[in-house]
Every structure is written in structure tokens, then in C-alpha cells.
Amino acid sequence: MNLPALRGHNDALVLELLRGAGPAGLGRTELAARTGLTPQAVSKITARLGADGLVAEAGRAASTGGKPRTLLRLVPDVRHAVGVHLDRDALRAVRVDLAGRVVAESGGPLDFAAGPEAAVEAVVRAVARVGAHAGPPLVGVGVAAPGPLDHRAGVMGRVTGFPSWKGFPLKGVLEGRLGLPVLLDKDTNAGAAAAAGAWLRATWPEADAGADADVGVGAASGFGAGAGAGAGAVGDVLVGGAPRTCVYLHVGTGLGAGLWLGGGVYRGARSAAGEFGHQVILLDGPPCRCGARGCVEVLCLEAVARGDLPAAARILGEAAANLVALLDVDRVLLGGRVVAAAPDVFVAGVGAVLAARALDPARPVVALAGAGVAEGAAEMALAPLFGRG
Q1: Cβ atoms within 10 Å, residue 76
Q2: H or E element in which residue 374 lies
Q3: Which of its termini does the chain have fewer beta carbons within 10 Å around, N or C?
Q4: Which residues contact 98 (CB under 8 A, 6 or more apart)?
């Protein structure tokens, strides 16, 4: 038995539960019941986490006749992480605490076509800006980029329209430059993690001070929890009232989907899941930059370009209805700059199509994601601390 690995796993279980409990905290008895660990083991774990500054007392529970129980809580400010969203024409970086609250952010233009080396320099500068403030150490950096890419190897794939990126080991290069663990994933997967975890955000009060803003680009700040959570008791606690299944649809310079299935981001065997924008919905339609014709991406973005946002929303809704029928999801969550520019139009338009095509009265809820891709990338960087990856 690998005792150090087992100890790390059990520590992560406890931290995940305390994170989900928010400032109110949990007692050791509750932690033991939810993890399946003995009370003695929980006491040792919480003592160790307390010595590391990760856990502190949250007061005492109301007495039920015996000695009031001591409650424990996660200490959010003891560690931070950075999330970076590399879009085709912009970059946004955020620094978050362990609760996922944004404490600093920065953004600006990015020319993705200029190639990987220029983008690496932009990421390094952005991480330096949001990490320049005196504060706790960083546990890592999450980077969300256009797909396809190999999440496990950290290597970029053949991004449509940007051939120079194919095969570039972005994760390894950034780890060498930053001296920190780096996690690379698709922008839509980071969006799914952020969106599905937005419900957990409600358990934490807003930070007293706002983020240190630089030049803001991209979606509004939010919270991303739960990247890669597995099924089971701890996953259930993590997502709380959030859906077990949802899809995140991102409409920006491209169109893609992030899939949250069974309590975690679903990437597929080759990290290729979620290529939503290149499903053909009009045979012999206009050519798409992927080489096919009549893809939902080209149809939707053409409608956006001519200023017909209701039509763009209907096209997005038709493609979303295909996905809902295939996966039977609870929620369809919308994000990206195009949606952010006209949120009511897209929520109403997609919702109307889903209602018209629903085969079941219990059709999924359509809503705004409520969290940005950069926040989701930061959450993915935090995931190993909470036993997720």
C-alpha cells in the first residue's frame, strides 16, 4: 500500500468537503461519516491540515445536549492559483483563492495567428501581472485554449485556421518558463467546469475587496468548481444543487461545447469530446473553415456577422437540441462574448427551440453560465489539491 498516496487522497477528501461546506464548516463527526474514515483518522488529517494553514476552526455547532462540536472550515487565502484563457484574439488571466474567488485579473489583445512563441510570452507576462501582488504561493496555472488538443500530454492539436500550433507542447514549455505546474485544457472544458460549479459559489460570501482589474476582456468574473470530479459521495457534495449533467455552449470567435457528465468534465478518450461547432446541420451549406459544409459554427457566426442575433440563437438552439436529445442533460448553459453581448436574445432563442423540439416535458433549463473560462482554468489548476484532476 502506498501510504503517502493514501494520505494525500484522504487529505483531499477532507479539503473537498470543507470547501463545499463554505464558511459554516463541518464537524469532525460529519467529516468521518461522509468520507468513511474513522474519527481518529479524521482528527489526524485535520490536525495536519491545520498545521499547514489550510484548515481553521469555524466556531461551535449548537449543542444538542452534549458538548458543542467544534466546526472546521477551509482557509481560502492560504494558497492561490492562476487561470488563463487564450482566445483567438484576446487573453484574460485571473488569480483566485481556494474558494475560487477572483482576487486579481488582467487582460488584453492576443494574435493567436502569430504563433505559439508569441502566445507563450503573453501568458508569462499575464501570469506575472496577476501574480505580482504580495500574497500566498501559487499552486499552479491552468491554461484554456482553443481545441483540439491533447489534455493529458499538454500538446496542441490542429486548431482550425492556425496550422502553426499543431504539435506544440504548450504545457511543457510554460512549466519551464513559469516554474509552476501547468494544466492545459480546451476553453470549452474550462467553461463547463466553471459553469457547473457556479452553484457552489453561492455558499461563499463575496470577497470584501474587488479584483485588481487591468484591461478587462472576456466574460465576467465568476467561480469555477468541480473540474474533473468523479461520481460518488464526494462528487455529490462538490456540486451540491448543481446538475449532474449539463452542456456549456461557448459562442465567441468560434463555437464549441464543454460536457459535464456524471459530476465531471467529459473529455473523451483522446480529449476530442465537445467539437460541437462542426456538426453539420445544413447539407451542402456554406463552407466552414474546418473543410466541411453547413456546420453550425459557420451558420451561427454568419448570422452574428450580419447582425441577426435572433437567427444566430435559433441556429445555436437547433444544434443544442441535437445534443440534448443525444445526452439527456439537465441544463444548457451559455457563455462567450457573443452571448454576453445579447444574453436575453440567446437564452430566449435557444430555450424556444428546445421547447419546440422537446420529446419529454421535463426539458432542460437554459441559462447563462455565470462564470468565465479563465475562472474555470484556474479551478482546474486547483483540482489536484482537492483530489480531482
Answers
A1: 21
A2: helix 373-382
A3: N
A4: 19, 54, 74, 75, 76, 77, 78, 79, 80, 382, 385
7-39 burial, b if ≥16 CB within 10 A, otherwise e? eeebbbbbbbbbbbbbeebbbbebbbebbebee
112/118 Cα distance (integer angstroms): 8
Q: Which three cell numbers stand for residue 102?
A: 477572483
* Rounded Cα distance, 95 and 105, in Å: 6
Q: Lowest-pLDDT range, 83-92, 211-220, 315-324, 350-359?
A: 211-220
- Helix then strand count (H, E) for the chain reads 13, 15
| Residue 242 grid cell | 448543481
Cell numbers found for residue 70: 467544534
Residue type at 325?
A: A
* pLDDT tens figures, 7-27: 788 999 999 899 888 899 999
For 234-253, give one letter per residue: b (16+ CB within 10 A) or e: bbebbbbebbbbbbbbbbbb
Rounded mean pLDDT, 356-374: 86
Q: Quick one: pLDDT at residue 232? A: 28
The terminus-to-terminus CA distance of the chain in angstroms comes to: 21
∠ at Cα 134 (131, 137), nearest 5°?
65
What are residue 157's phi and psi, to 5 degrees?
-100, -160
Cell of 299: 451558420
The pLDDT tens digits of the residues spanning 139-164 come to 999 999 998 899 999 999 988 789 99
**CA–CA gap between residue 182 and residue 43 (Å, rounded):** 32
Ordered DSSP codes for 176-218: HHHSS-EEEEEHHHHHHHHHHTHHHHTTSPPPSSPPB-SS--S
- What does each C-alpha distance from 181 to 71, 77, 120, 168, 173 come to in angstroms? 32, 19, 15, 17, 11
- Rounded CA-CA distance 45/15 in Å is 10
Q: What's the confidence (pLDDT) of residue 53?
A: 93
Strands 331-335 and 246-251, by their bridges, are parallel
Residue 220: per-residue pLDDT: 27
Grid cell of 201 as nine digits: 459559489
HSE (side-chain half, CA atoms, 13 Å) at 91: 24
